[in-house]
Amino acid sequence: MKLAGKKVLSFVHHEFEDLELWYPILRLREEGATVHLAGEEAHTKYIGKYGVPAESDFAYGDITPEQYDAILVPGGWAPDKIRRFPEVLNIVQQMDEKKKPIGQICHAGWVLISADILQGRKVTSTPGIKDDMTNAGAEWFDEPVVVDGNLVSSRRPPDLPEYMREFIKVMEIC
């Protein structure tokens, strides 16, 4: 297992994109990583856009970023809620400062925009937030996955296989 012993944090909130949360979590677990979910409240059930539930292990404020090797931000409408928490923005900033892998897909770019870590970075996202990404200082590409150092970004669910192949590669070297 490529990622045995690695710990990954994924954010969750209501109306996450079901596949963009669960596919990465399952792939990372298949590779031996431990994945925890952090939500607004600990031990709370959050419902995805298509009705798939996910229960948080921790609240955003319970997280110590140093305990994690990587972070994932799912898409859907959840990122617009997730980015409103200063604890989340602090976690993303600390992970980026330490050059730990950060994965974002679809609308998840909103969280990175609010964390102010995109200046001069190469990214992709759903085309719907392309202007938001470029206004935050990023160089946007219409590609299935873009890797810029520790930042791995992807557009939408059909790109999940390419996204996770690259995210796992980045995790292996970090």
Helix/strand order, N-terminal first: EHEEEEEHHEHEHEEEH
What is the strand content?
Answer: 15-25%
| Secondary structure tally: strands | 11
Spatial extent as radius of gyration = 14 Å
CATH fold field value: Rossmann fold
Count of helix runs: 6
Query: Strands of the largest sheet, in order across it?
Result: 5-2-1-6-7-11-10
On the 0 to 100 scale, the average pLDDT is 98
Large-scale geometry: globular
Keywords: Hydrolase, Protease
Protein name: Protease I
InterPro entries: C56_PfpI-like, Class_I_gatase-like, DJ-1/PfpI
GO molecular function, one term: peptidase activity
Outline the fold blueprint.
Blueprint: E1 7-11, H1 18-30, E2 34-39, E3 45-47, E4 53-55, E5 58-59, E6 70-73, H2 78-82, H3 86-97, E7 102-105, H4 109-114, E8 122-123, H5 130-135, E9 139-140, E10 145-148, E11 151-154, H6 160-173
Parallel strand pairs: 1-2, 1-6, 2-5, 6-7, 7-11, 8-9
Antiparallel strand pairs: 3-4, 10-11
Provide key terms for this protein.
Rossmann fold; peptidase activity; 7-stranded mixed beta sheet; 32% helix; 11 strands; 6 helices; two-stranded antiparallel sheet; 174 residues; alpha/beta
Would you give an account of this structure?
The protein is of the alpha/beta class and 174 residues long. The protein has a single domain (7-173), classed as Class I glutamine amidotransferase (GATase) domain (Rossmann fold, 3-Layer(aba) Sandwich), CATH 3.40.50.880. The protein has 6 helices and 11 strands. The strands form 3 sheets. It has a 7-stranded mixed beta sheet, with helices on both faces. It is globular. The two termini are 16 Å apart. Keywords: Hydrolase, Protease. This is Protease I. It comes from Planomicrobium soli. Pfam families: DJ-1_PfpI (PF01965). Residues 6-169 form the DJ-1/PfpI domain.
